[in-house]
Amino acid sequence: MGEDTSQAGGEPARDRPADWCFDRLDDTVPDVEANAVSIDGVERKPEGELASKEEASYQCGPADGDHCGTCTYYIDDRDGDAVGACTEVAGEVRSADWCALWAPREELQDE
Hints:
The protein is low in regular secondary structure. Helices cover 8% and strands 4% of the residues. The chain has a two-stranded antiparallel sheet with strand order 1-2.
């Protein structure tokens, strides 16, 4: 589908739509991530209770410096494909992206 091969830290996405990376993200996540907890120990919601990317206002890239990799709900990559998951949002999630459900990591708040 898309030919863009820039990395998360690559050029600004000003000429791309907010959903430019969606075609690179699978709608399902590997069991190893689907059954994992977030970086703050939050359990993943059952599949039928997860928000869609559209419902969560998921966008490709950070917002005001915030990104999934610094979110309490983010599940780190566990299968080596450099893509993680979320306890709140369906499908694969990139650490460099952001959604409206973003919440700061508990670890970072406590310091």
